[in-house]
Predict the 3D structure of the following.
Amino acid sequence: MRRVTRKSSCLLVVSCLFVVAACSSQGESQAPSTTGVTVFEGARLIVGDGSAPIESSAFIIENNRFATVGRKGEIAVPAGAARVDLTGKTVMPAIVDAHGHLGFLDMANGTMSKANFTRENYIDHLQRYAYHGVAATISTGTDLGELAYQLRGETIPNAALIRTVGMGLAWPGSGPNDPSRNDVPYTVTSVEQARKAVQDLALHKPDFVKIWVDDRNGRQKKLTPEIYQAAADEARTHNLPAIAHVFDLEDAKGLVRAGVEGFLHSIRDAAVDDEFIKLAKDHNIWMTPNLGGMNRASLIRENGTPEWFDDPLVRETIAPAVIKARAEMYEKRRAGGAPAPSGAQTFDIPNTRKLHAAGIRLVLGSDTAGDSNRWIGMMTLVELENMVTAGFTPAEVIVAATRDAAAVLRLDQLGMVAAGKSADFIVLDANPLDNIANTRKIAKVYLRGQEVDRAGLKAKWQARWNQVSSG
Ligand SMILES: [Zn+2]
C-alpha cells in the first residue's frame, strides 16, 4: 500500500520534471527564423585547428551546416536570420571519441551484460555522448549482430553518430577483459581462421578491422605475428583499414609492419624507442593514448576521490545508487591506503609525451563503457585532462579531440567550426584553453544544427532512476 503511494507521487514528480524541462527548453530556445538561417554571435570561438581563438565571433548556420564563420560585425548576416547571443561563452567543435564499447553497460544500475545490448540502450549511450558534447564515436570490437551497423546508417535526434568495427579478432580470452564481453570477438587461433573472420566481417563493411594483441599480463595467449599479419593482409584485400589493441612495444612494431594504421592504446610494457617512432612516422600511424579517462590513479586526491567526482555533471546524468557505490569504493580504497590500480600506468604517460613530441598523430580515444566504471560522457571529458598531463597544451588536446579524431574516423563533416562542416558544437560557460576541465562546463550542445535537448534527456534518466529505485 505504502509502496503504491510512493510510486504514484514519484510519477507525479517525474511528469512535472518533463513539463519543466519542456518549458525551460522552449523559453530558452532560439527558434530558427523563417529563413532557416541562424547567426550565433559574441562567443570566443575555438575553431578546432589549433589557431588562436576568435574573440567576439559570429557564425551562421544554414541547413544544419556552418555557412560563414568570422568576427561579429564583420560577416554579412542575411535579412531575417535568427540571432543567438553567446556573449561571455566559449564555443568549440563537438568532440569525436575514437574508442568505445557501446551497448553492454546499463547506466541506470551500473550492470554490464549481453542482456543490456538492445537498440534502446545503445541509443541511450549515444544520447549520453551527445549530452556531454560528443558528436561521434566508434564501437571498437564488441558489437553483437547487426544493431550497430544499422544505427550507423541512421540519424538519431539528440544522439551522437556511431561508427563500428563490428566484432574484433582475438585469441580466445585475450580480447575484452570484462566477463560480459569477453567471448564476443571472433576467436582466432590460426591463419585460416583469421582470414575467414575478416572475410565474414567484410560482408558488413566495418569501418575498420580490429585486432587484439595482448597477453593480459601473461595470463592469456595472444595472436601470433603470423596470425595478425594474415588478418591485416586479408583486411587489405577487402580495402578495409586495420587497427589494433596493443600493449607491448615489439607487437606494436610488428603490427605497423603488418599494415595496421592505428592503435587504440599507448605502448605500456616499455619506453617507446627511436625504431618505433620512425616506423610510426613512415607509416603515418595514429594512436589513441587511452590514459584511463576518469579512472586514472593519478587523478585521486588526498580525500580519496578525483576532482571530477564533485562535478554537477555527475549528478545530472548518473543514478544516485551508482554514485553511492562509487563513493563507497573510493572510501574503501582510501581507508585501505591503497592507491587505485595502475598496472599499465607506468609507461603510458611518458610514452604519450614522447610520441606527441615526435609528432605522431595522437587522437582522443577514451575506451568508454568498456566496464561498469567507465561512465559515458565523463570518461571522454576527463581523458582530455589526462592528455594535458601527458604534455599536450589544452589547444592541442582540443585539436586531438575534434579535427584529428574526426579525420581518423573519416568523418570529414565533423571536427571543426568551419564553413561547410556539419554544425556540431559545444557552448561552454568557461574557457577550456585556460583549463581543459572547463570542457565540463557545458551550457548547450548542438549536433547537426539542432540544440540537443539536454533537459529532456536528464528528465528521462531521472525518471528511470526513480523507476529502478522504486521497482
Ligand atoms: Zn577498448
User: Anything to note?
Assistant: Confidence is low (pLDDT under 50) at residues 1-29. The two ends are 14 Å apart (CA to CA). Residues 65 and 157 are 16 Å apart (CA to CA). The longest helix spans residues 2-28.
